[in-house]
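Fold this sequence, please.
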Amino acid sequence: MAAFSILDLVRVTQETDARGALDNARDLAAHAENWGYTRFWVAEHHNMPGIASAATSVVLAHIAAGSSRIRIGAGGIMLPNHAPIVIAEQFGTLERLYPGRIDLGLGRAPGTDQVTVRALRRTLSGTDTFPQDVRELQAYFADLDPGQRVQAVPAAGTHVPLWILGSSTYGAQLAAAYGLPYGFASHFAPDLLMEALSIYRRRFEPSEQLASPYAMVGVNVIAAETDAEAKRLATTQQMSFADLFRGARGLSKPPIDDIETYWSPAERAQARQMLARTVVGSRQTVRDGLARLIEETGADELMIVSDVYDHQQRLRSFEIIGEAAADLRTAVAA
């Protein structure tokens, strides 16, 4: 049976400032570990006023301090934005503070626009050093070699588990070659999901970290007491995508009754393509949708995004999803 985890967007809304978004994420993680979720991840995004997780490792420390068992991690750190030694120092520190609970998912994209890329002091040469940077990062987390002149303090010997994340076949190939777990971002880029999973599983080479392939699939799930209410809650995410297409990166908006009054036909078509891997509905509807996704993909784990505006309704959405997951586990065990 697949594991269930959470990717939280740490949303800043029209009613909640950045501090409120950070505290809401921490509160959700505390609830999630009692609802059966395996991990709680946040992602690195820059120059996005509606997302408060840019300082990802700091955010993770805040979340981890408010929970006790659930694994906490990055989904992901955009490694080309950083020197590997700095990321090793940050996540090695997290592992020392919260041993056995830290994950480090790695992405290759900048996670922002080109103007912000320059502000991050990233080179725009086009040279791809991501594979070498992953290897360098692995070396910093490994046991310290005698005479090693450069070490990431206090990362050495922590063996923080790495994940390769992506939305194309590139990450699948790299994860397979390096023998690392792989997460596909089908919650916003679903087109190559099945091809990427096939490549990853066919080409996987065992490693010290992982003996056999382990695939995580991202999926949007909006749950409520009824299908109609869940459909209404889902308009918050739909509006966010429409705003993204318009170049208007604003705060999260409360749900509306009719999304057709908000977006154009072109925006609707583009959003529906990007949100194709979305399950919206009641506990029964969610259970059936998740069962189909697991059967289709053979996923070892689902990473769930539930982009609901109101915090209490978002908590209830994840609680219902957890109940649906429990239903699936019972059905498999029967």
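The chain is about 45% helix and 15% strand. The two ends are 12 Å apart (CA to CA).
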